[in-house]
Amino acid sequence: MIYSKRYASSPKEVKQMDTDTLRETFLINDLMQEDEISLTYSHYDRYIAGSAVPKKKELKLETVDLLKAEYFLERRELGIINVGAKGSVSVDGETYTLEHKEALYIGCGKKDVVFKSEDSTSPAKFYFNSAPAHKELPTKKVGMQEANKLELGSLETANHRTVNQLIIGGIVETCQLQMGLTELKTGSVWNTMPAHVHDRRMEIYFYLDIPEEQAVCHFMGEPQETRHVWMHNHQAIISPPWSIHAGSGTSNYSFIWGMAGENLDYADMDIAKIKELR
Ligand SMILES: O=C(O)C(=O)C[C@H](O)C(=O)CO
Ligand SMILES: [Zn+2]
């Protein structure tokens, strides 16, 4: 298992950071390694982002010492989205097949979570997020057809996109986790514009579908004190609750957003006016 921990930083601290420090503190660039589970534990809302790519062998989600738990989901819930080829997740012996871009929610209390690929020449690539949970809730699979879809932006402002809300109230009951997958239309490059903050929830963006040789410039920081981090395919970035999180690509792309914190209200955002960004 590849495992790391990230501390929380204050706006004052982030203001002083150079490129390397900013990347070490917020960028997650060890995801999607074959036959490995990678985990990053953030002190923001004790959120975990990780991946599992079972190529030659099945991968079991084991607990880590930091959790001081008998098993990974003893006090946590888990959301998984498959960004690779067909695979399955077995949850205490029950198997859920996940096609490309299908999601699975697993409530706390499940002891045995095992990731498998259908075909080792074309493995499944599972991206997952986990947050502390206070009660057991049913496991549920959600396909892209079941997603709650928001059509946002326009081609004129280069931000026409579909926000597919997958693990969200009304579709799946969770304790504090929300996850979804946003896809930008051809010709649109800006996600989450106008940008926002939500002091009540932290968030992590995981970028995917970025073509080879292209990249996304992710913007973070307080709305009047922004910084940027260049992102490549299958990298993720932690957004503190006080930070904007938005990006512009050199082509269109997709990203998975996941968040947790004080509430489960997706629409609870404080918009940062474009003209007031600095
Ligand atoms: O493109 C968007 O807009 C998003 O996908 C926004 C995220 O869902 C988000 O930041 C939710 O807080
Ligand atoms: Zn957000």
UniProtKB/TrEMBL annotation:
UniProt: Zn(2+) binding residues = H196, H198, E203, H245
GO BP of this protein: D-galacturonate catabolic process; D-glucuronate catabolic process; pectin catabolic process
EC number(s) from the headed UniProt entry: 5.3.1.17
Q: Which residues form the signal peptide?
A: none
- Pathway where it operates: Glycan metabolism; pectin degradation; 2-dehydro-3-deoxy-D-gluconate from pectin: step 4/5
Q: Which InterPro entries match?
A: KduI, KduI/IolB_isomerase, KduI_N, RmlC-like_jellyroll, RmlC_Cupin_sf
List the catalysed reactions. 5-dehydro-4-deoxy-D-glucuronate = 3-deoxy-D-glycero-2,5-hexodiulosonate
Q: Which SUPFAM superfamilies match?
A: RmlC-like cupins
One short Pfam name that applies is: KduI
Question: Which GO molecular function entries does the Swiss-Prot or TrEMBL record give?
Answer: 4-deoxy-L-threo-5-hexosulose-uronate ketol-isomerase activity; zinc ion binding
Ordered alphabetically, the record's keywords are: Isomerase, Metal-binding, Zinc
Entry cofactors: Zn(2+)
Relay the cofactor remark from the entry. Answer: Binds 1 zinc ion per subunit.
Q: Which residues cross the membrane?
A: none
Task: Enumerate the Gene3D superfamilies for this protein.
Answer: Jelly Rolls, pectin degrading enzyme 5-keto 4- deoxyuronate isomerase, domain 1
Q: Cite the HAMAP family for this sequence.
A: KduI
Q: What does this protein do?
A: Catalyzes the isomerization of 5-dehydro-4-deoxy-D-glucuronate to 3-deoxy-D-glycero-2,5-hexodiulosonate.
- NCBIfam families attached here? PRK00924.1
Q: Which family does it belong to?
A: Belongs to the KduI family.
Q: What is this protein's name?
A: 4-deoxy-L-threo-5-hexosulose-uronate ketol-isomerase
Organism for this UniProt entry:
Galbibacter orientalis DSM 19592
Q: Which gene encodes it?
A: kduI
